[in-house]
Design a protein that fits this description.
seven-stranded parallel sheet, NAD(P)-bd_dom_sf, 264 residues, 10 helices, globular, Rossmann fold, oxidoreductase activity, acting on the CH-OH group of donors, NAD or NADP as acceptor
């Protein structure tokens, strides 16, 4: 592994000259991360669902307004054969180089375990775990021979806890934490850092049902030491850190961003 460069601290966080491939950036945490990475100097390739893909999306426009290059690749992550084409398409769009992969896309299905359908199970596992494996393997095949790269996986508090009525999500995110460590064990010596970010309770569309349930909202809110739910912007700093030279010796870590939930 290359050592952390001996340069002034602000330079450690610069992403100038870096190309990022990011999933799940149409809204919420992913959008905030994509824009933050562009603000740090990176050029961005967005993975967008065909039904929502647009060169005029808010995320696309925000990145373009910063003067950064922004491209998009269309794919429904439930279509695993199509997922296999994302990385080659992104390489072509970005001039043959991807330096950073951010796996932020995810879906949620809620139901008591005794009623949870096989279709819901497969959809959640495929999007939240298998698509990440496919993209990460492709990234590794590109990055390892070049001896440089960063992969950032978005895990969850349910990487550590079981949750309620979300058996597939908990299984996928638990496995994603282990996948993050497994890839780090193999690729750290090749100068490719693989780490995860584990969001706590964040006010996004995915948590809409919880936010609309007064009892669960009170129970969760009372347990967060920070005294508030998180916002997408709370991930700007962590994702820039893990994408930059500032985290050169950070390998296989699951960085919890949760307002203190796990420490309580």
């Amino acid at each position: 592994m290359d050592p952390t460069p001996a340069i002034p601290a602000p330079g450690l966080f610069s992403l100038a000259g870096q190309n990022v491939l990011i999933t799940g950036a149409s809204r919420g945490i992913g959008a905030a991360c994509a824009i933050a990475l562009a603000e740090a100097g990176a050029d961005i390739c967005l993975v967008q669902r065909p039904s929502t893909a647009s060169a005029n999306s808010p995320t696309y426009n925000a990145i373009a307004a910063l003067g950064r290059t922004v491209k998009s690749v269309q794919c429904d992550l439930e279509d695993l054969e199509a997922v296999k084409q994302i990385f080659p398409s992104a390489l072509e769009a970005m001039g043959g180089e991807i330096h950073i992969l951010v796996n932020c896309a995810g879906i949620q299905r809620r139901s008591p375990a005794v009623q949870f359908t096989e279709r819901d199970w497969d959809d959640v596992i495929n999007v939240n775990l298998k698509s990440v494996w496919i993209l990460s393997q492709a990234a590794g095949q590109h990055m390892v021979p070049r001896r440089r790269g960063k992969i950032i996986n978005f895990c969850s508090l349910l990487t550590f806890q079981g949750g309620f009525t979300v058996p597939a999500y908990a299984a996928a995110k638990g496995a994603l934490g282990q996948l993050t460590k497994a890839l780090s064990n193999e690729w750290s010596k090749e100068n490719v850092q693989v780490n995860g970010i584990c969001p706590g309770y964040i006010a996004t569309d995915m948590n809409e049902k919880l936010l609309q349930d007064p009892a669960r909202l009170r129970q969760i809110s009372e347990r967060i030491p920070a005294g508030r739910w998180g916002t997408p912007q709370d991930f700007a700093g962590p994702v820039i850190f893990l994408a930059s030279k500032a985290s050169q010796y950070v390998c296989g870590e699951l960085v919890v961003v949760d307002g203190g939930w796990m420490g309580r």
